[in-house]
Structures are given as C-alpha cells and as structure tokens.
Amino acid sequence: MTTVIIAVIVSFILAFIIGILLGFFKKIFAVPVDAKAKMVRDVLPGANCGACGYPGCDGFAAACAAGQAPADGCAAGGVKTAQAVAKVLGVKVDAEDHVVVLACRGCKDNCVPRGFYNGVKSCAAAHQAVNGTKMCQWGCVGFGDCVEACKFDALSMGDDGLPHVNTQKCTGCGMCIKTCPMHLFFKVPVSRKGAVALCSNRNENKAMVLKTCKAGCIKCGKCERNCEKGAIKVTNGIPVVNYALCNSCGKCVEGCPTHVLALVENII
Known about the structure:
Elements lengths: L1 H27 L6 H9 L12 H10 L12 H12 L8 E5 L20 H8 L14 H5 L5 E3 L5 E3 L9 H5 L5 E5 L5 E3 L8 H7 L9 H5 L5 E4 L2 E4 L9 H5 L5 E3 L5
Helix pairs in contact: 2-3, 2-4
C-alpha cells in the first residue's frame, strides 16, 4: 500500500514539474501571431477548401497579411468576404459573386457511350486510361469527381449521367473547374446576361458530331448569322459571346438547331 501511495505522489510531482516546463518552453519557443492575419482569418468562411491556392484559410490569411494574396482571393466567401478582408487590409475591391456552368449536354440520351468501362470509377482515371467513356472525346465522363471535390454540396450527379449545379449553394470557388479532367466547367458572374454555349465539342466534322452526340454544336454558323449585334463568333469550334455587345435578345438561342445555346440568366 505504501508503494502505491509513493508512486501516486511521485506521479503528481512529475506532472507538476512537466507542466511548469511545458509552460516555460511554450513561452520560449512561441511563434509570434500576426494580428492582421488573425483579423483576416476571423472574417473568412472557414471552409478550408483550398480554392484560393493556399493551404486552407490560415494560409490565405497569412498571405493576405503579407501582401501576397488579393483581398478577393477567397472565392468561396464571395463579395461579402472580399469586402470584409479588404476592410481589414485597408484596400478597395470590386468583387462579384460567381457560379459555375457545365459546358456539356452529353447526357445518357444524347451522347453515345464508347463501350463498357470496367476500370476505376473516376473521371480522371477513365480519361487517362481510355480518353473518357463517350464517343465524344470532349464529353462529361460522368463519374462525379467534381461532386466529390465540391465542399459546399452544390453539385450532384443526375439520373441523366451529368453533374447538376445548385446555383443557390454554389460559391464559385472553382474546385470543380480544377478537378474536371475534361475542363467542362467555367465561371460566370451571377449578374451576367446573354447567350452561352453549353457544349465543348470542337470537332469540325458535322456528321461526326451528330453521330456521337445529338446535343453537340455542329458549327453551322447560324448563331453568327442570326446575331444582329455581331456579338457571337464560332471560335475553335465553339460559339464565343462578346458580352459587351450581346443584348440577350435570344435569337441565337432560338435558331440553334441542336439547342447548344442558352441565355445564361435562365440557367443560373
């Protein structure tokens, strides 16, 4: 019994001494905290999504305080966060909220499958192994790597085999853009109006486009001819819109034979 009591007393003494030493060394080796970085960190959303290009919110806050990152670099936080960070840093920003759009309509009903894929169920793996799962080499692979990458539950795979964007939840962080091996996502400001092409098929062969996807751009040029403002040009096989000229009249949308074009204000 005496041995147990002595062991307990010694343990308490050792614990006390170790506690004092830890407190001492904590002061000796303490890393100074940048007050400005802490203030920036306090106004960030805390998603730690990495979309800013830094290792989480702490890394971004430190970079902002050091003048190495822009005040509007937190895409996940949107305009409010950008303004809050700018206030801490004493700068001005002209930020705008964004959402992402998928430039592909190659769903199960529209796009011909390449065959039965029996590999790793990953868009990146399928793209690297067999150049995708569809006859259209620009089409969505459909395994949902983008859904897994989204930190805000703004993407979901539909029964049609395509990812669908919930624009109410999307922060425009861009993680899906970085993740998609086919580069099918792009950002648009939430205030944008005008036509947008929902296709990435750059094949100039009209017959081949129709053979591989019923919803692909066939490069007919009808959108160019219908636009009275000259705001749309087929460039590298895809209709590209000059939003400084586009008045959102919708004539290119109405005239597109494969319904590739849509008014962006109607889809976000």
